[in-house]
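Posted in: Protein Modeling Q&A

I'm a second-year student putting together a small comparison for a lab meeting, and my supervisor asked me to include a predicted structure for Helix-turn-helix domain-containing protein. I've never done this before, so apologies if this is the wrong subforum. The sequence is pasted below exactly as I got it from our records. If anyone can share the structure token output, I'd also love a short note on what stands out.
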Amino acid sequence: MVGKILLPTTRIEKPVLSRCPLMYCRYIDDCCIVTSTQSEMDECFRILNQQSQYIKLTRETPRDGWLPYLNTQLMLSNGVVRVKWYRKESSKNIIVHAASAHPIAVKRAVIRNMLKTATDVCSGEIERQESLEQAFNILHNNGYQTKPRKTRKLRNASFTEERSNKLLLCLPFVSDRISAAIRKCLIRAQLHDDVVLVNIPNDNIKRQLVRNRLYDRSCVVESCTICPYGKIGDCVRTGVIYEIERSVCHARYIGETGRPLFVRVNEHLASKKRESLTTPLGKHRREAHGRNDFDVKCKILAYEAKTSARKALEAFYISARNPDMNGRNEHLAITNDLIPFLSLCEL
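Accepted answer (user: helix_wrangler)
Welcome! Here is the predicted structure, written out as tokens:
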């Protein structure tokens, strides 16, 4: 709860506050204490560390007169507080690398925000120049080349409002070259006034590691045609591109769904049982197997929560694998202009 003091924290701080230090302030788990003497400071530090065996506090001490606090360094000189930018040693040079697979707009935002922070927290021109020099060194160490700064034209409110009224085409980011090609396709299709491309960031290591909860998964379908050919619990996954394959003739069908996968697969199996000519499996049973039934297996090809991006990935998979039971024209509208970049998708 924002603005509420947590009771355990208050219990730890109370003995120190009772000593009436000149200043005591805290931001989450970072405390700043000002006392009249060094011995009083040492005593406050000792008292804080005695409050719980599970809490161990460390303290920053001034270096060359500068005391680190959060993302700043403070110096008290002749009654005047000087402030400049600070980066902890553990994360001093860690930013998005220039060669990383991120959209150029993301890299620009990282640089812009870092330079803005480095200048805004400073108290004077000397501190500002030192902070900018440190920021430029970090950029250089991460592969960025410093170039003369170009003046940017400010976007007026009408431009922002016009952009907000457009439809969002959300696609996974592959490279800036592919994004530029997609924008050219929108222009050639005369859709640039109605549609704006939004790049979806790729999964980072953290998202890849925490998405698997093996012990929470279970198969919910009797005689499941999905989990035996993948992982337990695949049948309840949502937002997937899937492939259905006949066990004997190996004819394949590729589709996508935002619902639980077993629901969509059951619809396919029901249409096969009805021998429906308007569905891929029903039509395949009649035309290729003389109305004889057949077994199928299903596996997941990819995961994508965004509908527009999922449909685009489905079209790429159909174009790359050319499955027998898919219609020949269902993916052409999306993939025709992007065929030169198909190899980059590693499908």
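A couple of things worth pointing out for your meeting: Residues 96 and 110 are 7 Å apart (CA to CA). The radius of gyration is 30 Å.
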